Amino acid sequence: MSNDAVSDKIKKGNYRLVIGTLVGATFAFSCASLGLSLYNTFNGRPFYYNFYDGNSANFVEGSIADIVNQVSPSVVSIITESTGTDWYGRSTSSSAAGTGMIVTKDGYVLTNKHVVDGAKKIQVVMHDGTIYSDVELVGTDPLNDVAFIKINNASNLQPVTLGDSKTLQSGQQVIAIGNALGQYQNTVTQGIISGTGRSIIASDQSNYANYERLSDMIQTDASINSGNSGGPLINAGGQVIGINTAVYSDGNGIGFAIPISSIKGMLKSLIETGSAKRAYIGVSYLNITPSVQKQYSLSVSEGAYVSPDNGIIKDSPAEKAGLKSGDIITAVDGIKIGKAGSLSTLIGEHTAGDTVELTIIRDGAEQKIKLTTSAYLED
Fold this sequence. Notes:
A hairpin with a 3-residue loop joins strand 8 and strand 9 (about 185-205). The chain has 3 domains: about 1-45; about 50-270, Thrombin, subunit H, CATH 2.40.10.120; about 275-375, Pdz3 Domain. The strands form 4 sheets. Strands 5-4-1-2-3-7-6 form a 7-stranded antiparallel β-sheet. By secondary structure, it is of the alpha+beta class. Helix content is about 20%, strand content about 35%.
């Protein structure tokens, strides 16, 4: 056989190898896309376990417009009406606007609790201008600024796709969509993830005495304005990775969003049982930071430090599983507490009744404890 013949066979072999690789990759991608498409088609709900992590993607020319066109039909404006009394005891009424995102075909919408708090009437305005007035509040998160509302008698709505906020990277590109200033529906802004695990104190602009402490927040420089609350923070894969919640009034380009992973358990509970119950383990803890580590002479720089004074709630899942005050919880089901999320966020991916495995440090030794969560009951 001549050298030319050998060379020709090698070239053809490489050609077949390249073509085979491309065909195989294309087929695999098509199957994954078809699987995700069928999941949405037949279940009409967001998927809790994604085959594709959009946090590894980057925007390219034209992709932002494509993603906005894909997601915008799932983003809604929420108009509320509230009543009250003035200083003279006279009845007053007021209206406000916020944002929400459709999470099931049959009308469940995710938003911020402060958007619908105290509302006597809720209306939902769709991307195409359709107005729904038969809307009710069906659940709130007792530990976070999250609420679920239901558009009654709705069908064939387009839900968002939920991503994984545990794998977020600082510097990652994102976009925010919302009802800016309560006037400009589906306004789009672009930015990056500036940081994760932030703690803030958020207050209502109309009532600064009404405030709450929020932890494990995503910080972004994608503009979040009044009215954007409850809208999606979206990665380059078109997946929702956060719920836009607050803006830092004294700084430029500093906004905050709630990690989407923290609400997946409540959403699953709502879909399966009609009740949005948060999974609960019953510990009082401190997120370990360098200052907390130093103050308590802890052996690790990340995790959840169970309060040494009455850190275990009586009759709670934690007490039943044998957790003790002073324990350090470092992981949930093998996922390390810290960059992936706080203890509360990682537990928030589960529903009441799930069994989880906690990795803890007690008396300098690591051990694992299995625990069955229960539903959080408000006082």
